[in-house]
Amino acid sequence: MKSHAKVVVIGGGVVGCSVLFHLARHGWTDVVLLERDELTSGSTWHAAGGMHTINGDPNVAKLQKYTISLYKEIEELSGQATGVHLTGGVLLAATEARLDWLRGVVAKGRYLGIDLEEISAKEAAELMPLLDPSQFVGAVRNKEDGHLDPSGVTHAYAKAARKLGAEVERFTKVEDIVRRPDGLWRVLTNKGEVVAEHVVNAGGLWAREVGRMVGLELPVLAMEHMYLITEDMPEVAAWNQKTGTEIIHAVDFDGELYLRQERGGMLMGTYEKANKPWSEFQTPWNFGHELLEPDIDRIAPSLEVGFRHFPAFQNTGIKQIINGPFTFAPDGNPLVGPVRGLPGFWVACGVMAGFSQGGGVGLALSNWMIEGDPGADIWAMDVSRYGDWATMAYTNAKVRENYSRRFSIRFPNEELPAGRLLKTTPVYDLLSAKGAQWGVSYGLEVPLWYAPEGVKDEFSWRRSSDFSHVAREVASVRGSVGLAEISNFAKYKVTGEGAASWLDRLLACKLPKPGRMTLAPMLKEDGRLIGDFTLANLGDGEWFIAGSGIAEQYHMRWFEAHLPVDGSVRIEALGPKLTGLAIAGPKARELLAKVTRADVSNTAFPFMAIARMDIGMAPCLVGRVSYTGDLGYEMWVAPEYQRAAFQALMAAGEEFGIGLFGSRALNSLRLEKNYGSLAREYRPIYGPLEAGLDRFVAYGKEADFIGKQAALAERKQGGRLRLRTFIVEADDADVIGDEPIWFDGAVRGWVTSGGYAHHSKKSVAIGYVPKEIADESDGFEIELLGRRHAARMQPVPLFDANFERMRA
Ligand SMILES: Cc1cc2nc3c(=O)[nH]c(=O)nc-3n(C[C@H](O)[C@H](O)[C@H](O)COP(=O)(O)OP(=O)(O)OC[C@H]3O[C@@H](n4cnc5c(N)ncnc54)[C@H](O)[C@@H]3O)c2cc1C
User: Fold this and answer.
1) Which of 362, 373, 481, 497 registers the highest number of CB atoms within 10 A of its CB?
2) pLDDT in tens, 560-581
């Protein structure tokens, strides 16, 4: 075994082997994979080998499509058969709600280039002869489904990597990982030590244990999973003979089942409700090529549905039941990327669909390690989407929930109950008493809307029980004054003598003067957007940044990686140390003036000013800015004072008829101002010109900010896309995001977010279209629940287009 390597990859499952292959293909050949046993000694060997392109996140779907397209290449390179059978498949709907969901999947496929087609249940039965069409209301055909040989694929990756110069050391167990003072990693094994610049944790079932070697508690948990294989079935033989083809895959969402042909019989797997975690706290090192004891009682309810939906199963025997463990992150998506605070330590774990996602994970990670960027939008897989709050117990609760809901519909207005209440702010009970309906963001409870006694969310794809109540909340903001809790923002404090010049290089905006704020886009080297903040200069060398709450860890990883080594800049994520309240509406200033002795007149405290002032008895930092697009103020307050500030505002607001508003009303309000947000409109695949944030980029400033050259090039060449707002002729449903935008009979763009703008009484969609059609006003259509609706471009904000209210 070599004593030094550029990269050590830990784990020879499908994911580790894919990472190794991609590193070598990308030109890093001084790389070695360490596997404690034979390759495939974790989840990989007993997988059912199914692969498919669809995923809830379109960017993950793209990587799944890439994974499937890769198998031919690694087979040719390695000479190792992968056993790929591209059979195609049907996705089945037994209810109308499921069919609505599938229509959304088909629509998304249109701009992702995934070939999906809605078919009737009868047509599905013609393709998949075992199903009873009377049990279904419709289906979708997916030509890119199939299955493969899990061991063959893993060995093909490893062999192809070796051919390119990478090394694989089997029976080499990593026992500890130690960081040297010079930043290199000592990887200690039962066969000696390897010193490496980079370490990749692809430990699969043991990813947690490998993480613990460097003090990291990763939010992953293994679950038991069962599938059965039947005896040979005459129906299968007859179909094979008649058509000369295999029986195609089927996913029966309402039965929570997946099926495919296995030799002369069938394989049926299920994600059962009564699921069971495996090795909750510690994965035993002596586990390897074993299976777990099957528990037919646990899967019996799903099988009962399966036997009804696929009657031929009633007449066949079960040859074998496989029960094996595999890992999940709390939301079911992989954990990929560099780990904050551990330079050179990378993770590629929590991959629950290794044969659909392994290639994409390897590609993104190798790009990231070699080029410094994943080369794709992998937000949904980024390990930084979790912070310390994703504890072991939280992970356990969420993974179990996610497993049991693997095939369940999640409606756009549906909040899931597991892992709550975890983080709450001091006004939680006060808001609950006012009818707050709660959602969760980055582990924190956030008010979505306020319901009268006895009313709650009815889950639906269409406008629902909250509609008129959100309208009332919007009306209180636009008509007088509303109050919202905004603690879910991320807040950062930056200090130190080097702070100003560091921020000038990090952020693309012009730095504000003391007492002022500005909108601050942050770019990466290729000029794409990785942040949009409000940056405030508090004076005396102190800076305050507010940004997207869900990206706190993501941004801290970036901030810390770019801090000067001389200690001249300090940054702190304030997290729960600072809570937030916001007031907005034409009466907001009058209200503020009633609760503070500070001069808040327009002259003394204009738009984008920031100052410390008391709200009632509570010391606060108050900024004159509002995401509602109205006259408004954001107030940052230590948690011990939040109740006092809240009560002072509510009491003083009574005379104006103050109303509480939640994040759904905020969404409605920001839509009529064309305001975007991170992870929706602003993502690392769009440039500032494309996203309409170029007006906040100080192209001419002296500082050589990160991404400046690329941003200048984008401005010169014009980019490819434009973010636009559309008014949709919708009837009883509004867009939620990811719907295709049609123009002139073809899909030309996609929706990033939208909803109903209650004040303007318009259904609004925001999305990207190619710049060539970005100045057209008519001829657009947006596909919503299987129907195309006419849409009109809305070039100026629906509300306060001249920004008079905001600046008044
Ligand atoms: C019953 C079942 C059915 C499934 N069906 C499908 C399916 O149809 N389609 C699909 O895509 N996925 C399926 N999966 C999931 C799939 O198996 C996993 O997504 C995949 O195997 C994950 O691969 P991995 O490389 O991340 O982890 P693993 O396969 O667990 O590999 C990790 C490897 O790391 C090694 N390792 C760990 N720690 C160390 C150490 N300290 N030193 C050295 N080596 C170490 C282990 O020995 C192991 O070989 C199924 C899983 C099960 C259990």
Assistant:
1) 362
2) 999 999 999 999 999 999 999 9
Question: What pLDDT, on the 0 to 100 scale, is given for residue 54?
Answer: 85
Cβ(14) – ligand 1 distance below 6 Å: yes
Question: Does the C-beta of 174 come closer than 6 Å to ligand 1?
Answer: yes
Reading across the β-sheet that carries 517-523, which strands appear in turn? 517-523, 529-539, 542-547, 490-495, 570-573
Residue 347 beta carbon below 6 angstroms from any ligand 1 atom: no
C-alpha–C-alpha distance, residues 661 and 677, integer Å: 19
- Give the chain's end-to-end CA distance (angstroms, integer): 71
Residues of the chain with pLDDT under 50: none
Distance CA 493, CA 486 (A): 17
Residue 642 has a pLDDT of 98
pLDDT value, residue 789: 97
Which of 33, 178, 326 is the pocket-test mutation for ligand 1 (most atoms within 8 Å of CB)?
326
For ligand 1, whether the C-beta of 373 sits within 6 Å is no
Indicate the burial class of 84 (C-beta count within 10 angstroms; 0-12, 13-18, 19 or more). Answer: buried
Residue 351 near ligand 1, beta carbon < 6 Å: yes
Residue nearest atom 37 of ligand 1, based on CA coordinates: 203
44 C-alpha to ligand 1 centroid (Å): 4
Instruction: Return the H-helix or E-strand segment holding 438.
Output: strand 436-441
**Rounded distance from Cα 351 to ligand 1 centre (Å):** 8
For ligand 1, is residue 210 a contact (CB within 6 Å)? yes
DSSP sequence for 735-762: --S--EEEETTEEEEEEEEEEEETTTTE
Rounded Cα–Cα distance for residues 268 and 152 (Å):
21
Give CA–CA dist 384/342, Å, rounded: 12
* Rounded Cα gap, residues 376 and 366, in angstroms: 12
Q: Which residues contact 667 (CB under 8 A, 6 or more apart)?
A: 753, 755
Cα of 266 vs centre of ligand 1, distance in Å, is 23
Going from the Cα of 350 to the center of ligand 1, the distance in angstroms, rounded, reads 9
DSSP annotation of 723: E
Q: Are strands 249-252 and 746-757 parallel, antiparallel or unpaired?
A: unpaired
Residue 785: its pLDDT value, please? 87
pLDDT score of 797: 97
In sequence order, the β-bridge partners of residue 139 are: 92, 119
> SS3 for 561?
helix
CA dist 174 and 190 (Å) reads 7
Place of tokens 């130190």: 496
Q: Give the position, in ligand 1's atom list, of the atom nearest the Cα of 41.
A: 49
Burial class (CB in 10 A: 0-12, 13-18, 19+), 464: middle
What pTM did the predictor assign? 0.97
Q: Is 291 in the pocket of ligand 1 (CB under 6 A)?
A: no
Residue type, position 646, single letter: F
- Tokens standing for residue 476: 């209180």
* 3-state secondary structure at position 572: strand
What pLDDT is stored for residue 57 in this prediction?
87
In short, whether 49's Cβ falls inside 6 Å of ligand 1 is: yes
- Give one DSSP letter per residue of 216-239, joined into a string: -----EEEEEEEEEEPP-HHHHHH
- 359: Cα separation from own chain's centroid: 19
What is the structure's pLDDT at 556?
98
Question: What distance in angstroms lies between residue 710's CA and the mean position of ligand 1's atoms?
Answer: 40
Orientation of helix 14-25 relative to helix 150-163, angle to 10°: 30
C-alpha 162 to ligand 1 mean position (Å): 20
Q: With a 6 A CB cut-off, is 733 part of the ligand 1 pocket? A: no
Burial of 404 (0-12, 13-18, 19+ CB in 10 A): middle
- Ligand 1 binding pocket mutation candidate from 21, 33, 44, 168 (most atoms within 8 A of CB): 44
Which of 14, 43, 292 to probe ligand 1 with, by most ligand atoms within 8 A of CB? 43
3-state secondary structure of 732: coil
Question: What is the distance between the alpha carbons of residues 532 and 548, in angstroms, rounded to a whole number?
Answer: 8
